[in-house]
């Protein structure tokens, strides 16, 4: 089974079309509604997704790990991380899946910087990206061109090996660190990202560093 | 005895009483109880015999006792703040675990 995990928080405007377009490329779409205050869950369900609802907003990392637990339970062979805001293109899914199956890798990371299709704001490209890469290197991550990209594919081995502990956006740094720690094989593929809103800024980056630091001292 | 010393003594006795009560209620470990008892007794010694801290500070190469107290207080406050942050982080994780278990129990089945 090829399962798409879509973490969603107050995405009622776009989640329906995202689910419908995903269902053309995957077997099942799981939307993890992360404590939305709008009707994200209802719209996702009507569009054909299986829906899990967090009663409290816990963050994207928490929603993805909830999706992982579900995927392990239902015996998914491949999983896809896909954002609910419609910034990714479903056209990138099948080439990435084909690569995952045939290139002997456990995980595929999407990258905005492998081609020129994405409309990345220059502050993200030239300011936040180098800082992000430095932070990832400090916390034991891989040398990726775009670590903080929400488009990822896991095979069964990666799904059962990686368990996310960071609830917030620090999971994007945690995943490459875990891949390196467990010696999983990986590859980057170009993906298209069309921004509808700016997303994580410098404040979010500071929270990521704080969470990564605190995580080092937690049980 | 100056007014400050009298008020501080009263406050420290109240704090020591609270520590003993928490120990009686099994809400504090033996190590925690010992730490806070020693802390408040030392604080009383510092308040009543300020020169004792100056002597100790001089041994460490610090000119004034009050400077030493300030440095140690800052270090302690930052340490306690750090411990609180770590504890909060762990509580956040526990909440996430509960929320996840709850979500997985209540899967909304799809139409597929």
UniProtKB/TrEMBL annotation, chain A:
Keywords: Transferase. InterPro entries: Glyco_trans_2-like (IPR001173), Glycosyltransferase_2 (IPR050256), Nucleotide-diphossugar_trans (IPR029044). Residues 5-161 form the Glycosyltransferase 2-like domain. Coiled coil: none annotated. It comes from the Bacteria. Gene3D superfamilies: Spore Coat Polysaccharide Biosynthesis Protein SpsA, Chain A (3.90.550.10). It holds the Pfam family Glycos_transf_2. GO terms for molecular function: transferase activity. This is Glycosyl transferase, family 2. It comes from Candidatus Magasanikbacteria bacterium GW2011_GWE2_42_7.
UniProtKB/TrEMBL annotation, chain B:
It comes from the Bacteria. InterPro entries: DUF2304. Keywords: Membrane, Transmembrane, Transmembrane helix. It holds the Pfam family DUF2304. The chain crosses the membrane at residues 33-56, 68-86. This is DUF2304 domain-containing protein. It comes from Candidatus Magasanikbacteria bacterium GW2011_GWE2_42_7.
């Amino acid at each position: 089974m090829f399962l798409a995990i879509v973490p969603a928080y107050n995405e009622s405007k776009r989640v329906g079309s995202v689910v419908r377009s995903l269902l053309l490329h995957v077997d099942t779409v799981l939307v993890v509604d992360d404590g939305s205050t709008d009707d994200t869950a209802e719209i996702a369900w009507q569009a054909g997704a299986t829906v899990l609802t967090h009663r409290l907003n816990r963050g994207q990392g928490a929603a993805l790990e909830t999706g992982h637990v579900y995927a392990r339970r239902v015996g998914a062979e491949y999983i896809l991380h896909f954002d609910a805001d419609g910034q990714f293109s479903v056209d990138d899914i099948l080439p990435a899946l084909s690569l995952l199956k045939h290139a002997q890798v456990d995980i595929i990371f999407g990258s905005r910087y492998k081609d020129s299709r994405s409309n990345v704001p220059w502050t993200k490209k030239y300011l936040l990206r180098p800082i992000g890469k430095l932070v990832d290197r400090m916390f034991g991550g891989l040398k990726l061109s775009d670590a903080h990209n929400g488009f990822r594919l896991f095979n069964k081995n990666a799904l059962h090996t990686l368990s996310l502990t960071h609830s917030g956006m620090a999971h994007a740094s945690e995943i490459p660190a875990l891949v390196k720690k467990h010696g999983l094989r990986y590859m980057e593929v170009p993906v298209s990202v069309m921004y509808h809103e700016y997303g994580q800024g410098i404040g979010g980056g500071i929270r990521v560093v704080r969470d990564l630091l605190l995580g080092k001292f937690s049980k | 005895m100056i007014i400050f010393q009298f008020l501080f003594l009263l406050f420290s006795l109240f704090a020591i009483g609270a520590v003993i009560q928490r120990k009686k209620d099994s809400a504090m470990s033996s190590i925690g109880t010992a730490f806070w008892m020693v802390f408040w007794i030392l604080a009383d010694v510092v308040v009543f015999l300020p020169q004792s801290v100056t002597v100790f500070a001089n041994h460490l190469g610090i000119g004034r006792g009050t400077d030493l107290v300030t440095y140690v207080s800052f270090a302690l406050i930052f340490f306690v703040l750090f411990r609180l942050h770590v504890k909060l982080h762990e509580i956040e994780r526990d909440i996430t675990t509960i929320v996840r278990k709850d979500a997985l129990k209540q899967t909304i089945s799809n139409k597929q």
